[in-house]
Design a protein that fits this description.
This protein is mainly alpha-helical. The protein has three domains: 187 residues, Up-down Bundle (Growth Hormone, Chain: A); 50 residues; 230 residues, Growth Hormone, Chain: A, CATH 1.20.1250.20. The protein is built from 19 helices and no strands.
C-alpha cells in the first residue's frame, strides 16, 4: 500500500505530542508553580493526566472497534490540542490541573489507536520494525524534552511548552484525514455507556487512592477504595448482562492475552521503579551531580529502541513467546546490577543496569503488543491493544505506590538516627558531595532503603518473566488462524 509511510508519519507525529509532553512539563513545572501559586497541588498536574489517560484508554479502544480508527483518533487529537491550548492560558494551578486532565483524555485515545492503526496496515512480520520507530519517538522525546523546555522558558513563556503541540497535532490530523481509510460499517454500533461510566469511575477511584495515599487522610483513601470496589462489582454485574459489553471478559481472560497483559503490568511496575529511584540513588548515594544522575537514567532510552529493533528483526524466526521470555530476562538481569550497587560503585554500573533493563523492556513490550494484536480478530484489535496499554499505565501507578511504600518503610525504620524526614533527604540530594556525621548516616539509611527498593524491583521483574512463560507456544505460529485456534 503506497500510503503506508504517510500513515506511519502521522502516527509518529501524534505519539510525539504525548511523548514530549510527558518530559517537557516536568522540566518547567517549578516555573509554572512559581507563577500560578498553589504549590500544594504540584503533584496533581501530573496525577490528573495519568488518571485520565489510564481510566479512558480501554474506553477509546472499544470506541475504535465500534466506530472506526479514524474518527476516534481525530477526536483524540482534537481533545489533546484543546487541552494544550487551554493549559497555555491557565490562570491558576486548579485550572492547570483541569486542562491537564483534558490532555490526558486525548492521550488515552492517541496512544492505543496509534498502535492499532499500525497493526491494521502492517502484517506481524513488518509491524515490529514500525513499533521500533515508535519506541525511538519516546527515546528522542525523553532526550529533547528537557532541553526544549529549558530553551522555551529562557526565551519565551512557559505557555509555549503546551502550544508547540498545535502544529504537530494539525500535521498528524491532516495525515490521517488524507490517507487513513476505515472499513464501512453497515450496522449502527451500540456503545455500552453504563459499562464505560462504571469502568471509568472504578479506575479513577483506584488511581486516586494510589497516587494520594501518602498525602490524603486515611479515611479519604479508604473511601476511594470503597468506591472502586462498589463500581467494580456493579461493572461486572452489568457487563455480564450487556449485549455488547464494554469489556469482553472472554477476550481479556484468554490465556495469551491474560498472560501478556499481566507481564506488561509488572513491566510497567519495574519501569517506574527504575525511573523513579535510580536518579535518587545516583545523586544521594553515589554523590553524582543531577546531570550525571540523569545520564544514568537516559541509558534506558538507548536500550529500549535497541531492544525493540532486535525483537522486530528476530521474533518471526524464534517466535514471540521465546522473545518475550528470553528478551524479558534482560529486565531482571539489569535489576540485579542495581541490587549490587554500593556507595563505592561507579555510576557506569548504574547506567549499565539501566541500559540492560531498557533493552529487556524494548523486546518484551514489542513482543507482547504484537502477540495480543495477532490472537484477536480485526474488529477486536482496538480493545485488545488498549488493554495492553492500560496494563502498562496501571502497572506504573501500582509500582509507584508499592516501591514508594518500600522506600518509606526503610526510611522510617532506620537504625540509630531514627526516621529520616523528607527535608533531610532534600538537603542531602541538594548537596550530594556534602560530608559530615549526620549526612553520612542519612546517606547510609538512604542506601539501605533504596537497596530494599531495588530488591522489590528485581522480584517484580522475575515474576514478569514467569508470567510471560505462561503464554502458550501456539500463540506464535504465524500464518495460521491463531485467533480461532488458541486455548482460552
Amino acid at each position: 500500500m503506497p500510503h503506508r509511510p504517510f500513515i506511519v508519519a502521522a502516527v509518529m507525529a501524534s505519539m510525539a505530542m504525548v511523548a514530549i509532553e510527558a518530559t517537557i512539563v516536568s522540566t518547567v513545572m517549578p516555573q509554572i508553580a512559581a507563577d500560578l501559586g498553589g504549590l500544594n497541588l504540584y503533584s496533581w498536574v501530573f496525577a490528573s493526566f495519568l488518571l485520565a489517560q489510564t481510566a479512558m484508554t480501554v474506553v477509546f479502544g472499544k470506541l475504535a472497534d465500534l466506530y472506526g480508527r479514524k474518527p476516534v483518533m481525530l477526536a483524540g487529537i482534537a481533545i489533546f490540542l484543546a487541552g494544550s491550548v487551554l493549559a497555555g492560558f491557565a490562570w491558576s494551578m486548579t485550572a492547570m490541573i483541569v486542562f491537564r486532565l483534558v490532555q490526558g483524555v486525548g492521550a488515552a485515545a492517541i496512544q492505543p489507536l496509534a498502535l492499532t492503526i499500525v497493526a491494521d496496515y502492517y502484517p506481524a512480520a513488518e509491524r515490529g520494525k514500525v513499533q521500533g520507530y515508535l519506541a525511538s519517538v519516546w527515546a528522542l522525546s525523553a532526550v529533547l524534552g528537557p532541553m526544549v523546555g529549558g530553551l522555551l522558558i529562557r526565551d519565551l513563556s512557559w505557555s509555549w511548552i503546551f502550544w508547540i503541540n498545535i502544529p504537530i497535532g494539525i500535521a498528524a490530523a491532516a495525515g490521517f484525514i488524507r490517507y487513513l481509510r476505515d472499513e464501512v460499517r453497515h450496522e449502527p454500533p451500540a456503545l455500552d455507556v453504563p459499562g464505560a461510566a462504571l469502568f471509568t469511575v472504578a479506575i479513577a477511584a483506584l488511581m486516586f487512592a494510589l497516587t494520594e495515599s501518602a498525602n490524603a487522610p486515611a479515611w479519604q483513601t479508604w473511601a476511594c477504595l470503597g468506591l472502586c470496589g462498589v463500581a467494580t462489582v456493579l461493572f461486572v454485574l452489568h457487563e455480564r448482562r450487556a449485549a455488547d459489553p464494554m469489556i469482553s471478559f472472554a477476550l481479556w481472560s484468554r490465556r495469551p492475552i491474560a498472560a501478556a497483559n499481566a507481564s506488561t503490568l509488572l513491566a510497567g511496575m519495574a519501569l517506574i521503579g527504575l525511573t523513579t529511584f535510580l536518579p535518587m540513588y545516583s545523586q544521594g548515594v553515589l554523590r553524582q551531580t543531577p546531570v550525571a544522575a540523569g545520564l544514568t537514567l537516559t541509558m534506558i532510552m538507548l536500550g529500549w529502541p535497541l531492544g525493540a529493533t532486535v525483537a522486530a528483526r528476530t521474533f518471526v524466526r524464534i517466535g514471540l513467546r521465546r522473545m518475550m521470555v528470553g528478551g524479558g530476562a534482560f529486565v531482571p538481569t539489569g535489576a540485579a546490577l542495581l541490587v549490587l550497587l554500593t556507595p563505592e560503585s561507579s555510576p557506569l554500573t548504574a547506567g549499565l543496569g539501566s541500559l540492560i533493563m531498557g533493552f529487556g523492556m524494548g523486546t518484551s513490550s514489542v513482543s507482547c503488543m504484537i502477540l495480543i494484536q495477532e490472537v484477536v480478530a480485526a474488529d477486536q484489535r482496538g480493545s485488545a491493544t488498549a488493554s495492553n496499554v492500560f496494563a502498562r499505565n496501571l502497572g506504573s501507578t501500582l509500582g509507584a505506590a508499592l516501591f514508594g511504600a518500600v522506600l518509606n518503610y526503610g526510611l522510617a525504620h532506620a537504625g540509630g538516627i531514627g526516621p529520616v524526614t523528607s527535608d533531610q533527604l532534600k538537603e542531602l540530594l541538594d548537596a550530594p558531595a556534602a560530608a559530615g556525621g549526620v549526612g553520612e548516616a542519612i546517606r547510609g539509611v538512604l542506601q539501605h532503603s533504596l537497596h530494599l527498593t531495588f530488591l522489590a524491583v528485581l522480584a517484580v521483574s522475575l515474576l514478569m518473566v514467569a508470567l510471560a512463560a505462561l503464554v502458550p507456544a501456539t500463540a506464535t505460529r504465524f500464518g495460521r488462524p491463531a485467533a480461532q485456534n488458541l486455548p482460552h
